[in-house]
Write a structure and sequence with these properties.
Blueprint (H helix, E strand, L loop, with lengths): L42 E5 L7 H17 L3 E5 L4 H13 L4 E4 L4 H13 L4 E4 L10 E5 L1 H18 L5 E7 L5 H17 L1 E8 L5 H15 L5 E4 L2 H13 L15 H9 L5 E3 L2 H16 L3 H7 L2 E5 L4 E8 L2 E3 L4 H6 L5 H4 L3 H9 L4
Parallel strand pairs: 1-2, 1-3, 3-4, 4-5, 5-11, 6-7, 6-8
Antiparallel strand pairs: 9-12, 10-11
Helix pairs in contact: 1-9, 2-3, 4-5, 6-7, 9-10
The structure holds beta-D-glucopyranose.
The site of beta-D-glucopyranose (BGC) has 12 residues, from loops.
Length: 369
């Protein structure tokens, strides 16, 4: 049996960002920079929804906007709000408005592939952003090493279960959406860590669309069926983790059964500090957005060699049996002691995390503020 300790391998890469130019957010027609050398051509970005994770609106939109604005590139960022028809309509609108590059975080492989096909037909390269569209044939992919995200979830959870004295035993898997290739990769990561450490699985369920409300119902059913007999819950993001913790809380078990998450949302970080969630995973979205913007700008300039040089990694499209040139960043597991690192990286603030008297105490105890 391996034992896990919180990795101190958290590296903070400070990036400087120069703001100046204005972007063209959500369809308006602004977006001109004063610099003479600004790349000509607009980038379209389609985000998937705003409910499955806080990240899309609070982090991805913000950092992408900042990156394009800093480069003096016009952009249009829209959110499909978990509606596949809307996703198509937005894409069609962007293509007919003449975007030069399209960045998409798909809602599923089928609708994502249709959009990629339409863009390809009119010569617009597509970058898969965060989620790989299986069978889609996007030119590039920018994301994190998503199996490693799952590994961090598993390692954190194993550490907490071992600390509870549970060296083995039944674990619940509450996975992300079956429509999201990332959910498959996350699961691969935590399933392996948990199995290798000697745990068994008492339930293994996916939550369609990462729907947090649905997650609560699914987990309530699991809880009833298993009579609450499990030593940990691997849930794939902070939204799902929050639903799990609320059900555990109703049963007097919050803080007793380790639960995982992902995204380092404020709520997730707060639960980690309070001990009701064992681990979250921090993905530096600023780096992801910066990488995607850099790639998009190289493509606008028609500099395929530069784009290829940036996308030096590879991600498997298991439907097309191809490897998509990728930028894959490294995630970090966050336990109590690492919450301060997320704040130091500028992802959130002391004020947003340390909001109540109880949290202020936990913050102080963990070197925050
Ligand atoms: C993203 C996660 C997010 C989830 C739900 C995944 O594809 O990688 O960061 O929590 O979708 O939106």
């Amino acid at each position: 049996m391996r034992s896990y300790k919180w990795g101190v391998a958290f590296t903070v890469v400070a990036m400087t960002l120069t703001l100046g130019a204005c972007g063209d957010d959500d369809g308006g027609d602004g977006g001109s920079a004063s610099t003479a050398a600004k790349p000509a051509g607009k980038v379209g970005v389609i985000l998937p929804d705003s409910a499955s994770s806080a990240r899309w609106e609070t982090a991805d939109r913000k950092y992408l906007s900042e990156a394009f604005a800093a480069a003096g590139v016009e952009f249009d960022i829209q959110n499909a709000q978990n509606d596949k028809a809307k996703f198509q309509t937005i894409a069609e609108g962007m293509l007919s408005a003449g975007v030069k590059v399209l960045l998409i975080a798909n809602l599923d492989n089928e609708s994502g592939s249709t959009v990629i096909q339409k863009a390809t037909d009119v010569g617009v390269p597509v970058i898969d952003y965060d989620r790989l569209t299986l069978g889609g044939g996007a030119k590039y992919y920018v994301s994190f090493d998503n199996v490693m995200v799952g590994t961090k979830i598993g390692e954190g959870l194993v550490g907490c279960m071992q600390a509870n004295g549970d060296e083995s035993g039944p674990v619940v898997l509450l996975n992300g959406s079956p429509d999201d290739n990332n959910a498959t990769l996350f699961r691969q990561g935590y399933e392996k860590v948990l199995k290798d450490a000697g745990y068994s699985f008492v339930a293994d369920q996916a939550v369609k669309g990462w729907d947090n409300t649905e997650a609560k119902t699914v987990f309530e059913q699991i809880f009833t069926k298993t009579k609450g007999k499990f030593v940990g819950v691997a849930s794939a993001n902070d939204g799902l983790g929050g639903s799990v913790v609320s059900v555990l809380d109703q049963n007097g078990l919050a803080g007793k059964v380790p639960v995982s998450g992902q995204d380092a949302t404020d709520e997730g970080l707060q639960r980690v500090l309070l001990g009701t969630q064992c681990v979250t995973v921090y993905k530096a979205i600023k780096k992801e957005a910066d990488a995607a913007a850099e790639l998009a700008i190289a493509l606008i300039k028609g500099d395929v060699a530069a784009a290829d040089a940036l996308a030096s990694g590879k991600a498997a499209d298991t439907t097309l049996n191809t490897e998509v040139p990728s930028v894959l960043l490294e995630p970090a597991g966050i336990g109590k002691a690492e919450v301060k690192d997320v704040i130091a990286d500028g992802y959130t603030t002391v004020d947003k995390v340390c909001t109540t008297a109880e949290l202020k105490k936990a913050c102080a105890a963990n070197g925050i503020g």
